Amino acid sequence: PGVVLHASNSMPPEMLNQFLSLSCVYLSFTGGKSLNTSKTRHLLRGVPLNRLLVETDSPDQLPFDLKSALPHNEMAVLRRSIVGVAETLGMEATSVAEQVYKNAQIVFSL
Fold first, then answer.
1. pLDDT > 70? residue 92
2. Count of CB atoms within 10 A of residue 27's CB?
């Protein structure tokens, strides 16, 4: 079990290490427009992979290319979120997806 910090994209950068000092905290990022900011990329790169989660439940953070296709963010966009996070981290999307899945199993006791 753990604590999930939803929409960590918007976290003040100076708080990152404080939250990471708590072993039960997992940080969840969307893969939408906010990954285009240097602040979010910096935050994301500072999160250990074993504490990372990815989400799509921020309705206002759709990837740019889906703005006209969908009215809001939804579960079907999760793959794009994984890909966006993987690109930011310089990793393969499959590796990120596998680790995020393991993290979700831990934090949600699945």
1. yes
2. 25
**Cβ distance 54 to 78 under 8 Å?**
yes
Using the predicted structure, report yes or no on whether residue 32 has a pLDDT greater than 80: no
Q: Is the pTM of this model over 0.90?
A: no
Cα–Cα dist 59/57, whole Å: 6
- What is the C-alpha radius of gyration for the chain, rounded to an integer number of angstroms? 13
What residues have CB less than 8 Å from 46, skipping those under 6 apart? 16, 17, 20
Kindly give, in sequence order, each residue whose CB lies less than 8 Å from that of residue 101, ignoring residues fewer than 6 positions away. Answer: none
SS (H, E, C) 36-97: HCHHHHHHHHCCCHHHEEEECCCCCCCCHHHCCCCCCCCHHHHHHHHHHHHHHHCCCHHHHH
pLDDT for residue 80 is more than 60: yes
Q: Whole-number mean pLDDT of the chain?
A: 84
Question: What are the backbone dihedrals phi and psi of residue 96, each rounded to the nearest 5 degrees, phi first?
Answer: -65, -45
